């Protein structure tokens, strides 16, 4: 499967920062109630990939997974991982950095705003 996930320059920079602090990481697209649809970032080896999880690709050298059931709903679009101000998910490595990862899709992507 071709990569179905990409990252903005801001996301790649935050990934590099987290990897410098924690070593290699992986992402799992959250579908839970508490963190909404935030991509969760974990140290590699600290998160068990499920038998039905689907690898969408890699961003910043980090593998990116989604549950099979959620993939069935989102398989029609590619995901774009971005960064916005705020706190990451409780167990995600972006928590406490005052920036968090955010999932956008190619269907909902807006063109960059022109400076006012």
Can you describe what's shown?
This is DUF779 domain-containing protein. InterPro entries: DUF779. The relative contact order is 0.25. The chain contains 2 helices and 7 strands; from the N terminus they run E-H-E-E-E-E-H-E-E. Helices cover 18% and strands 33% of the residues. The chain is of the alpha/beta class and 116 residues long. The model has no long low-confidence stretch (mean pLDDT 87). The termini are far apart. The protein has helices at 9-22, 68-74; strands at 5-7, 25-29, 39-43, 54-59, 62-66, 79-85, 99-105. The strands form 2 sheets. It has a 4-stranded mixed β-sheet with strand order 3-2-5-4. A 3-stranded mixed β-sheet has the order 1-6-7.
**Morphology call:** globular
Catalogue the unreliable spans: none
How far apart are the first and last residues' alpha carbons, in Å?
41 Å
Strand content: 25-35%
Radius of gyration from CA coordinates: 14 Å
How many helices? The count is 2
User: What does the average pLDDT come to?
Assistant: 87
How helix-rich are the residues, as a percent range?
Answer: 10-25%
Structural class: alpha/beta
Across the major sheet, the strand order is 3-2-5-4
Largest sheet: 4 strands, mixed
Please report the total strand number as a whole number.
7
The H-and-E topology, N to C, reads as: EHEEEEHEE
């Amino acid at each position: 499967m071709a990569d179905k996930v990409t990252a903005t320059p801001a996301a790649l920079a935050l990934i590099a920062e987290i990897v410098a602090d924690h070593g290699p990481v992986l992402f799992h697209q959250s579908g839970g109630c508490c963190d909404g649809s935030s991509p969760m970032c974990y140290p590699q080896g600290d998160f068990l990939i499920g038998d039905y999880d689907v690898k969408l690709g890699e961003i910043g050298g980090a593998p990116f997974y989604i549950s099979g059931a959620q993939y069935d709903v989102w398989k029609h679009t590619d995901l774009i991982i971005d960064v916005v101000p705020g706190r990451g998910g409780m167990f995600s490595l972006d928590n406490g950095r005052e920036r968090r990862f955010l999932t956008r899709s190619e269907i909902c992507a807006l063109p960059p705003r022109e400076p006012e």
